Fold this protein.
Amino acid sequence: MTRDGILNAQLLSAIAHCGHTQTLVICDAGLPLPPGVPVIDLALVRGVPTFLEALKAVAGQLVVESYCYAQEMPQANPGVLS
């Protein structure tokens, strides 16, 4: 049992099972996914948690080897990149 940091058991398990070259995607509800892709829905109500809150929580628990973001991000949501 954990007291602070990420408390969601599914998310903690996914982070713990991430290895080299594996991908973890943090996205909003609109991302189209192919059938069979595991999804951990963190939504409580619209906008909670925010993308940045989820990203910061995961980044605090995971060694990130590289990252990428949608090419639309700088125009659609520039505040996230700063």
In short: Residues 26 and 54 are 7 Å apart (CA to CA). DSSP finds four helices and no strands in the chain. The radius of gyration is 13 Å. The mean pLDDT is 91.
